[in-house]
Amino acid sequence: MKTKRIIGILLAASMLIPGCNSGVKDDETAQDDILMALGNAGEIGIVKEDINTEPESYEFNPHVYSPTLAQEISQDKWDAFYNLCDALRAGENSFECSSREAYDFAMNVSTLASLFPPACLKVTDVSDDGTVPYENGVGRIYYTMPVEEYVVRQAEFEELITDILNSTLEPDDTDFEKCLKLYLYVAENYEYDDGMEPDGDGAFYRTFITKRGMCVDYGAVYGYLLLQVGIDGLDIGCFEPDMCHAWTYVVLNGQGYHVDTTWALTSCYECLDDVYLDYFLMSDDDRIQDGCLVSDLTMQALPQFFLSQSNIKLKADDEQYSFPDYSTFVSLDEDNKILYYRDMYGEMHEMNYG
Question: Which residue ranges make up each domain of the chain?
Fold first, then answer.
């Protein structure tokens, strides 16, 4: 945790106070025209929508997709992974895949941890009955827990994710609003914990369940929630002598950004209940100034782990959403697309994100 944040809290806490229409027809003619129009609409198959219909809710997406990761992962590997996801949800013990390489990607621990968390460490590619793991376009699934229990585990995880999405987001949210609301959700509901011992569950999955974890967990958790609603987000990190840290790389409206939900956790700051916004949609320069170099980053979902060993090049040079240090979230006016925030001196500001 950064010392500047603790100092900033004390400083912030000490300074915050808290038309016209021509040629109108007569009533009978207008009524006839309306009835005729409704009749014609029915004849050509137009259905009038009920204005009181409830908006659609979010559903669990078993086939999350990252265009960023797809720069390195070929389509046949994605197809194999999706076939595996479908098989796991049904409790099956095999799935179709085009090659051993595709099978290895689908069954990889890092792939499952990042893109299908409940299966991480609960299935393996190591045979326990003498069968061949991959043969003739078919990959075998070896469960490390009773299959019936895994299916229940999967269903409960899907319910958890849909509950998070539907209690946090609205169906008509823009991508910016989805990114912000999920950022606030993680910041306000999770706790930092670097003392959790391995227990046979995938770390990212366990963070969803316990709401506790470390930076690498929160980078993946936030990224996975974004992937669930169609926004490209992946866990990345840096390993430097003075800073070993992980966060999320997000692509919003075609631009790349860094989002650090770990340093935004309100549970880490005893004197402040608000959420810091300067860790939301950061540029490369913002990230570097915060002590995290972006020269040779890691990506958990990559088989090679280090981005320098892949074809993926990350860039975050847009600064339209850069917030001043110690800025805190106040409110969101979704009708007018305005975000209200306070600076470190308690003064109110607004950002038009429309």
Answer: 67-149, 169-352
- 3 state DSSP class of 133: coil
Contacts of 10 (CB under 8 A, 6+ apart): 271
pTM of this structure: 0.84
Task: For domain 169-352, give the fold.
Answer: C8orf32 fold (3.10.620)
Of 250, 244, 315, 239, the C-alpha closest to 279 is 250
- The residues of the chain scoring below 50 in pLDDT are 1-32, 34-53
C-alpha distances in angstroms, 202 versus 14, 22, 261, 269?
42, 69, 19, 27
Q: Are 219 and 287 in contact (CB under 8 A)?
A: no
CA distance linking residue 261 with residue 118, whole number of Å: 21
* HSE-up (13 A, CA, CB side) for residue 81: 28
For residue 354, the model assigns a pLDDT of: 87
Quote the pLDDT of residue 295: 87
